[in-house]
Each structure stands twice: as C-alpha cells, then as structure tokens.
Amino acid sequence: MIAALEAGDFQHEGRDTLNEKNLLAVGDVTETEVIRLLRRTRGDRYSSSGHDWDSETTVHVFRPEVDGERWYIKAYFLDQADKSAMFISVHK
Amino acid sequence: MKIIQEGEKGIALAPELGRVPVVYKYRDLTLDSGTTVKSVLVGVHEESDRVLVIPAQSTPRIKEVREAAKEEVLEARVPRELEDILALLGEHYSVTPKKFSPAVIRFYLHSAASSPPLARRLDKLSRARLAHGKRSARIRVRCEASLSEQVTRLAAAFSNANQSDLMRGAIIAAKQDILDSRAKRRSQQLKAVAAAV
Lengths: 92, 197
Known about the structure:
The complex is a heterodimer. Chain A is α+β, with helices and mostly antiparallel strands. Helix content of chain A is 16%, strand content 41%. Chain A has helices at residues 2-7, 31-39; strands at residues 10-13, 17-18, 46-51, 54-62, 65-66, 69-70, 72-77, 85-91. A 5-stranded mixed β-sheet of chain A has the order 1-8-7-4-3. In chain A, a hairpin with a 7-residue loop joins strand 7 (72-77) and strand 8. Chain A is globular. The two termini of chain A are 19 Å apart. Chain B has helices at 59-70, 80-92, 97-113, 116-125, 145-157, 163-179, 184-196, and strands at 9-14, 18-31, 36-45, 50-55, 72-78, 137-143. A 4-stranded antiparallel β-sheet of chain B has the order 1-2-3-4. In chain B, strand 2 and strand 3 form a beta hairpin. The two termini of chain B are 29 Å apart. The interface between A and B is medium-sized, with 30 and 30 residues. Strand 1 (10-13) of chain A pairs antiparallel with strand 4 of chain B.
C-alpha cells in the first residue's frame, strides 16, 4: 500500500458520486500523510475482509491512532501484483 | 506519479457485478455535497454508464472546485475616491486593477489578522475623512472562508467597526504605504503580489 502511494499508483472507488469522506480523494490529506498513518498503524489496528461487491478482493482496513486522532483507512488491490491501490475511505 | 490517459481501459468493482471493465473519460463528477467538478478524468463502466473509479491525478481539480465552493465574498460600499485609489495602485505596479485591487485588500486584511498594530491602524483609517465621502461604489472581494472569519473576528474586536470599515481602512492604508511612499517593505511585498496576480 505504501509503495503504491509512493509511486502515485492509486485511485479512489466511486459510486456514481465521490464520497467526500475520502479525504485523500478530495485533497484534504496528502499521500505523504497517509503513508505516515499507515506506518504508524499497530498490528492490532489492522483487519481485512472480503469486498461486498467481490468476495475474492481483500479489503485492508487500518485504524491508526496518531497524535490523539483516530483514523480510518480502507483500501484494496485489484491487480494480481498488488501494485495499484484503490481507496474507499480515508477519514478521521 | 502514474498518469492515466483518456481512452485507457482498466478494471473496477461494481455493485452486484463484481469486477467490470472501465474506460477512462473526462466527464462531470458529482461530489456527495452536490458540488459538480466539470470535465475531470474518471473510470466509467460503459454498460451501465456509472462512474466507478477516480484516478489520483483528478484530485487537484476536485480540491480546487471544493475550495472555490467554500469561498466567500467580502463586500463594502465605498466612496468613488477609494476606487480611484485602487486604480492608482494598479497603475503604480503596472497591473490591471480588476485583479490587483481584491489582492491588495486581501493582503491588508490578512496581514491585519496577525498584526494588532496594523489592525488598529485599519480601524483608525476607516474613520478618516477619505472614508466618509458619498459611498456610491461597491467593492466585492472573493476570499477563502478562513479570511472572512478572521476579518469578522477582527471587526468584533473594535467597538465601532465592521467588515466594510476594515476594507475601507485597508484601501486608505495602501494609499499611505504605496502612493505616499510611507512603507518600503510593504511596497516590496505588494510588488510581489502584483507580479503574481
């Protein structure tokens, strides 16, 4: 996930409209900030599950607590090499 | 940074359909808030005509439109002489007043928000003779919501001032600083502002 952000190889899931709670998609947080949040996510603040629309796609959920703020980051990969990330949510 | 070109194909997830092909196209995108971003690159499932993907490269355009939607307008009725001063300031820096005048007012109001002496000066100048002619002209300045809030707070700190008073004070302060050559440093700063508008 971090490699995808560093490479600028990521997109955002749309559902006809764009969910403005995805703060990365609307530019309220940068990829650098999201990388920092991912790096500071403890193991017990990570979970995964199948995507509602495709059970074979694993959705990664990160719930880091950084500088007193709880974050929620949800993303998945569609390509087999896990290179290009698709973000569903990035919000506090 | 990966840049996707119009017409490229990709894969996305769609409700009830799972993995589906998408084609990247420039089209209008609606945000949750109802704001529309005109002609931005999105991944479209052609069969259903639904937008399923928004590439990272579209974020700056989305951000720009959201910021513009948050903009507010500061307004003041002013004597025509203050309009003349704004025109003279534009001439001083060889720029058109239409773009430069709002920038001058924003510059002073923004500076005053972090400088109590300048804020007191704008308040004082808003009661100067020049500010009290017949107010037959109207000035509108677009600004970010944060500046509008700062100006409201600033005006509240002075018992007899409002937003419009501080705008009139800002124009007179600019006259003194630039046209009367009273503040070299501020003149240099405004030269940079003039070059940027």
